[in-house]
Amino acid sequence: HDDLICVLRIDRSDLIQSSLQQVTLKLDDLKKPLRIQFLGEDGIDEGGVKKEFFQLLTKELFDPLYGMFKYDEQSHFHWFNQNSFENTQEFRLIGIMFGLAIYNSVILDIRFPMAIYKKMLGMPVGLKDLKQL
Prior knowledge:
This protein has about 130 residues and is α+β, with helices and mostly antiparallel strands. The protein has helices at about 15-25, 50-60, 90-105, 115-120, 125-130; strands spanning about 5-10, 35-40, 70, 75-80. The strands form two sheets. The protein has a two-stranded parallel ribbon with strand order 1-2. A two-stranded antiparallel ribbon has the order 3-4. α1 (about 15-25) links the parallel β1 and β2 (about 35-40). The N and C termini lie far apart (about 45 Å).
């Protein structure tokens, strides 16, 4: 039964690093339905644990104190912190996390300026889009 799903075993106390490690180990299984198991907890993931995992991981990765992103109080958008010292692996984790969330029908509460979405879709980015920054 475990070969039909992708189980990520996550350490709550080291969320980002254990998520990165688990995702790296399970790259070939990421297109399977996702189940999250927090280490030392008996919770069965019927969707709630998975949603909690994405909420916790998103909160940590996008926390301005973590340093990867800045948050603009006026526009309510997140943007890349040009002074970030995080390595590319953590930015890769964000991309994988977004993909996993979409693939597993989990809505994330992250707001980016339109320029990012246009760039991902291969659409031209104009001055109007950059004004949001």
